[in-house]
Amino acid sequence: MLYLYYMINTLLDKVTRTQQLSQDEIIYLLSSATPTALYQAADRVREKYVGNGVYLRALIEFSNICKNNCLYCGIRAENAHIKRYRMTPDEIIQTAQQAAGYGYKTVVLQSGEDIWFDSDKLCHIIREIKKLDIAITLSIGEKSREEYAAYRKAGADRYLLRIETTDKTLYEKLDPQMSWDNRVRCLHDLKSLGYEVGSGSLVGLPGQTVESLANDLLFFQKLPVDMAGIGPFIPHPQTPLANEKSDGHFELSLKMMALMRLLLPDINIPATTAMESLHPQGRLVALQSGANVVMPNVTATEYRPLYELYPGKICLGDTAAKCRGCIEEKIKSIGRHVSSSKGFHGDYLKNTH
Ligand code: SAH
User: CA separation (Å) from 344 to 17, 105, 141, 158, 291?
Assistant: First the structure.
């Protein structure tokens, strides 16, 4: 017992000093039971490198129409049991205006891979939202380099595209007809076009090994990402993975997130909504274990239940106004504050927080 305690502390000292861990060392930390010291180390590093401010990103889920068939995802094309919706460009722009009115400095536009939104439509939406002087993050899946370039030129600042898993065989099993190499190509294109790039993994996928989780962290460090969202996999009843379990996924995600903070100390790390779906205080626990970003939902209440990536999503019946107030109170309750900057990677060091 004493030896295990010693080993954990030695590794935490090492990573805090050098920001480096080997795959074996990451596996050791991921496998250790209730590693309070890991969470505390991540919390200290978070405070030192990105401060006590929490960046809020207003999430607009603008279409649940998707051409893909990811086995884990509730909005996969073959799920015939959900009602599909698509917001109009004007509705999306109005929702962004509303978000800016609530004081949000960034909106995240997320959807399934809905090809109705071609480059022209998206660039129009981006240009209109940009007039509000807020940052724009896109999370709309795999596109060509030309499309990414067009969105960037129109004013998009950031892009979120989770690799989901770095285990290529597992990825291609869970995401049929998709290519892992193409997903990596997308991440490299986004980086080279000057986007702030967010990636991340799903934790607890059937067949996922602790070795591959360690590789995920090393992959994010190598890219390197500007943001990494780590979320637990939660089985959706209308998918082929309906009978899988979610036991232990919260804690494993928390460990991954804390390690992410130690390996890339100054990046932005969200306390993901899926974490709160598995634990009543999930986002606060995450904010105290390395996270510094929260993405409150500003989607109109009528659409929220339809964007069901996984069951048990929080705040389904709430309004955008309620979510804004509620999250701010929660953040204050743990001695932190909502940051007033747009929250670009490195803003804290530039004193624009
Ligand atoms: N179409 C976009 C957005 C996908 S939805 C894209 O391809 O990037 C956003 C994220 O939801 C996905 O990246 C995935 O990690 C997560 N997600 C999907 N199904 C989930 C599930 N069952 N449990 C938890 N998270 C899930």
Answer: 24, 10, 21, 9, 15
Nearest CA to ligand 1 atom 19: 73
Query: Is pTM, for the whole model, over 0.70?
Result: yes
Per-run averaged pLDDT (10 residues), the chain, 353 residues = 83 97 97 90 98 97 98 98 98 98 97 98 98 98 98 98 98 97 98 98 98 98 98 98 97 98 98 95 98 96 96 91 91 96 89 60
The CATH number linked to 154 is: 3.20.20.70
d(CA 286, CA 306): 26
pLDDT, one tens digit per residue, over 55-68 is 999 999 999 999 99
Distance in Å, CA 3 to ligand 1 centroid: 39
- State if residue 141 touches ligand 1 by the CB under 6 angstroms criterion: yes
**Which of 167, 282, 182 minimizes the C-alpha distance to 214?**
167
Question: What is the CA(40)–ligand 1 centre distance, in A?
Answer: 28
Q: Per-residue pLDDT tens for 19-35?
A: 999 999 999 999 988 78
Q: Is 233 in the pocket of ligand 1 (CB under 6 A)?
A: yes
Q: Where are the alpha helices (DSSP H) in the chain?
A: 2-18, 23-31, 36-50, 89-101, 119-130, 145-154, 168-174, 180-192, 210-222, 249-263, 273-278, 282-287, 320-333
Tell me how many domains the chain contains. Answer: 1
Structure tokens at 224: 């390197």
Tens digits of residue pLDDT in 237-288: 999 999 999 999 999 999 999 999 999 999 999 999 999 999 999 999 999 9
Name the residue range of residue 320's domain. 2-352
CA distance 175 to 146: 24
